[in-house]
Structures are given as C-alpha cells and as structure tokens.
C-alpha cells in the first residue's frame, strides 16, 4: 500500500491520528485530527514534537512521553473551547524490536462527558417521571372538558384525524389546553391503550434531551447503566408521543428526529444497532413555527412533516364564553379537593369574565384554587381577588377634621371606581349607578385628573 492510500484510509477515521517516526518527527496527521484540534497538517509535518510544543500548537506531547518510556501513554487534555480530548500514544516496533513509529489517536470526549452528565440528569428525570406518573393514558383520570363554539372546531378536527396517522401540530399560547388536546387525540387514536408520553423540548439541555428522546446503549459512557436506557421515541412505540415546545428542539436533534420519522427506527446514543419504533406523533408550540423556519431556526422539511394537520387553540380571551363554566367547574374541583364550600359572587364572575387571562386556563385554575384555599368567607368577593385581576381601589383614609362633604366625596369616588372596575366602561358604570355618563366622567376627571381623552363611551380601561 502506498503512502497516498494510507493517508486516505486514516483520513476516513473518526478519531484523530498523529504519526511520528522513531525520533519524534511528525510524518502525518489525519483530517479528524485537524478538525478536533484545529491544527493543520502542513503546519506540523516535518516538525519534531518538541518544536510542535515550542511553537505552542500543543501543551504536552504524548509522542515524546512514548519516546521516553517506550510504552503506551494516555492522557486527557483540554484544548480550545474547553473541549476535552483523550490522547493515546502507542509505540510500534519493527521485527527486530527497534522503535519504528509512534501512533497517537485523539478522541474528542466532550460529548461523551456531556452525555455522562446528561445521564445523571436523566436518572433524576426518570425518577421524576415515575413519581408523577408519565404512565399509559388509561391510568390518567378523564378530565372534564369545557368546550365552546370557539374551540369545538379544533376538538372536532382533532377527533376526525385522531384515528389516522396524520401528524398534528397544535398551536396556542401557554395554558390554552394543548396537552389536553393531545391527550384527547391519543384517546381517540387507533392505539388508546398504548402509552401517552410527553416531553417538553424547552425544558432541558441538548445532551439530556437527546438521551431522553433516543435513549442510550449499554455502557455508552462511563457510569451508564449496564442495561442502557430506552428513549421516549422507543417507549412511545404503540402509543402517542407529544413533543411540546417543538420550536425549541435544537437543529441537530431536528435532523435526527426527521430521520426517525422517515425510517421508523432510531439509534440510541452510543448504540450501533437501530431499534424499530412506531408511534403517533403530536407536536405543540406556542411560537410561530413558520417564522422560525424563515429565520432558519427550524428545518423546513421537519416543519412540513410534523404539521400535516395544524390545529389552533385560541387564547381564553378569544373564548370568553368558556370563562364562567371553567370558573364554576374548577371551583367544584377545588372545593372537593380542599373540602370547602365556596362560591363566586356575581361581581367576581363579571370581573373575571372580562379579565384578559395572559396565562389562560392554567392561570384560571391557579386563581380559583388560591381563592378556595384562602377564602375568608363562603362567597368569594371582589375584594378577595388579586390586584392584577381586580385593582384594589380603596377609599383614602379620612382625617378626623375633614368635612362631611370631603368624606362623602371620598366615599362617592370609591363607589364609582368600584362600579367602573366591575363594569368596565363609564357608560355601563353610569347606567348601573343611575347617573349620567357625562356626570360620571366629569367626577372622574376631577378625582383622577386624567381621564383618557378618547373615552366618552366604551373604552375606559379598568386599570389605569
Ligand atoms: N377545555 C378544557 N376544559 C377544562 N380544562 C382544561 C381545558 N383545556 C385545558 N384545561 C386545563 O388547563 C390546564 C392547562 O392545559 P394544558 O396543560 O393542556 O395547556 P398547554 O397549552 O399544554 O400549556 P403549556 O403550553 O404551558 O404546556 C390543564 O390543567 C388542563 O387540564
């Protein structure tokens, strides 16, 4: 074999290779060595290893140590970008026992070390998963669904496609019920008895995400379980996998996921054998995935693959008719849970129906539970609501020597501010209080000295 062929062969290796002669003069390096260390072949070929060290290309030469000790030497070095490499030098002797070459291999173990760290985190995650029961959907108690005109179309579309293998992309703000809808799809799919698994792609670092999705092979890295760990892409086989916040999946994993979806098989981290898999994929996102495609943050081919049927869940403020039923439903749920018997006052229901609910149903549930556990009376009143929901407008404290007129004025302001907060507009507040809208606006102007100019009718903000 000539030198050219030999070079081609070592260039095909994934590990870096560095070869010196018996004196320690560099004969060649391969492409992987150039890639891993950033040191180019033409810069070091012909140089003695001591010159390579002197020139600052490397801090310590394994070849020189092999030359000294005439036996294999391995050490771990940190190079630029804090990458960790394992360098192993081996002496090669000719038939008479004289040193002929020193062959050094260089392996970048940054990823492996990361994966080891990931494995520890994964272990934690799996414990959490066990504790919180990411279990087959049949074990999950059916939850009552509140559906209105605004969401019925989404649920009907989901039901129609549930039994097919079409991939569904659920879009909606946080807390709008994307996971709930995915579960609904699973329950109406061809494999409702299979597992329903969910992974939030935004919640963990890339290496951990990869180990979680793909699993890893036995002994993939030091400290890995001797049995290896199956990934969610494998465990979900025969069931449904929800990839939440898919827009946060790193590009490298997007490519790997695409391959799994095309080939129905996967390669665990550190594995050499493909494993077959077949699951129902549902993805969810609160982002504009198409925009991410345009910005090059999300692969276009994967986008088309996962969004065969896009389903949108509107925000709660776009489906206000669900607010009261949801408030009543979750009040019952939390009353039962905490053995209370609370009810909403009508004023609360009116105010809450108009509130914008940036956290959507999840925020509504949290607020309801908070009201139930902190309730001072059986009826939840406006003043119990947190100030971001209902501005806690209190009459100012009156001084002992204030006139009756000033005190009445103060009390009047309290009544008007409360009516405004409850009914939202000066027109509605005036109607309820039985006064002219213009009188109310004039009074407000005097008190606040800053009624919005445009507001003569519907638009006085509750909070200003
Ligand atoms: N139609 C509904 N009727 C009753 N409760 C619902 C409905 N939709 C969602 N919920 C409840 O609202 C809460 C939030 O829903 P879910 O977790 O599905 O939202 P999400 O959009 O997946 O949130 P995130 O984007 O933060 O993951 C859950 O506790 C869920 O049970």
From TrEMBL:
It comes from the Bacteria. Coiled coil: none annotated. Residues 2-46 form the PAS domain. Keywords: ATP-binding, DNA-binding, Nucleotide-binding, Transcription, Transcription regulation. SUPFAM superfamilies: Homeodomain-like (SSF46689), P-loop containing nucleoside triphosphate hydrolases (SSF52540), PYP-like sensor domain (PAS domain) (SSF55785). GO terms for molecular function: ATP binding; sequence-specific DNA binding. It holds the Pfam family AAA_lid_14. Residues 69-121 form the PAC domain. InterPro entries: AAA+_ATPase, AAA_lid_NorR, Homeodomain-like_sf, HTH_Fis, P-loop_NTPase, PAS, PAS-assoc_C, PAS-like_dom_sf. SMART domains: AAA, PAS. Residues 148-373 form the Sigma-54 factor interaction domain. One of its GO terms (biological process) is regulation of DNA-templated transcription. NCBIfam families: sensory_box (TIGR00229). PANTHER family: TRANSCRIPTIONAL REGULATORY PROTEIN (PTHR32071). This is Uncharacterized protein. It comes from Aliidiomarina shirensis.
């Amino acid at each position: 074999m000539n030198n050219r062929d030999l070079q081609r062969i070592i260039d095909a290796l994934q590990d870096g290779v560095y070869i010196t002669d018996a004196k320690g003069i560099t004969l060649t390096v391969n492409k992987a060595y150039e890639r891993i260390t950033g040191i180019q072949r033409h810069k070091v070929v012909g140089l003695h290893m001591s010159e390579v060290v002197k020139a600052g290309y490397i801090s310590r030469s394994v070849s020189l140590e092999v030359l000294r000790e005439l036996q294999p030497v391995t050490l771990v070095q940190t190079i630029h970008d804090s990458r960790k490499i394992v360098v192993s030098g081996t002496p090669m002797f000719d038939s008479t026992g004289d040193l002929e070459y020193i062959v050094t291999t260089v392996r970048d173990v940054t990823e492996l070390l990361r994966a080891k760290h990931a494995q520890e985190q994964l272990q934690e995650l799996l414990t959490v998963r066990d504790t919180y029961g990411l279990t087959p959907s049949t074990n999950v108690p059916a939850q009552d669904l509140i559906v209105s005109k605004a969401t019925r179309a989404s649920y009907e579309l989901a039901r129609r496609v549930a039994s097919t293998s079409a991939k569904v992309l659920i879009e909606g703000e946080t807390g709008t019920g994307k996971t709930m809808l995915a579960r609904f799809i699973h329950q109406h799919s061809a494999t409702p008895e299979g597992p329903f698994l969910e992974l939030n792609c935004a919640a963990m670092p890339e290496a951990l995400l990869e180990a979680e999705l793909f699993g890893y092979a036995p002994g993939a890295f030091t400290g890995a379980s001797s049995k290896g760990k199956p990934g969610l892409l494998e465990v979900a086989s025969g069931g449904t996998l929800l990839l939440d916040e898919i827009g946060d999946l790193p590009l490298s994993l997007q490519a790997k996921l695409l391959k799994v979806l095309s080939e129905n098989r996967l390669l665990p981290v550190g594995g050499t054998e493909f494993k077959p898999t077949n699951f129902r994929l549902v993805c969810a996102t609160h982002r504009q995935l198409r925009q991410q495609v345009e910005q090059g943050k999300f692969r276009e081919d994967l986008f088309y693959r996962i969004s065969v049927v896009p389903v949108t869940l509107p925000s709660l403020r776009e489906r206000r008719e669900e607010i009261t039923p949801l408030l009543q439903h979750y009040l019952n749920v939390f009353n039962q849970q905490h053995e209370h018997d609370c009810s909403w006052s009508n004023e609360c229901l009116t105010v809450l129906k108009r509130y914008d609910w940036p956290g959507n149903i999840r925020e509504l549930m949290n607020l309801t539970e908070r009201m139930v556990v902190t309730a001072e009376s059986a009826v939840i009143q406006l003043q119990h609501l947190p100030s971001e929901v209902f501005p806690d407008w209190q009459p100012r404290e009156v001084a002992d020597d204030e006139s009756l007129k000033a005190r009445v004025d103060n009390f009047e302001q309290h009544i008007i501010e409360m009516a405004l907060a409850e009914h939202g507009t000066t027109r509605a507040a005036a109607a309820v209080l039985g006064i002219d809208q213009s009188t109310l606006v004039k009074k407000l102007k005097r008190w606040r000295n800053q009624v919005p100019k445009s507001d003569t009718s519907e638009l006085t903000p509750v909070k200003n």
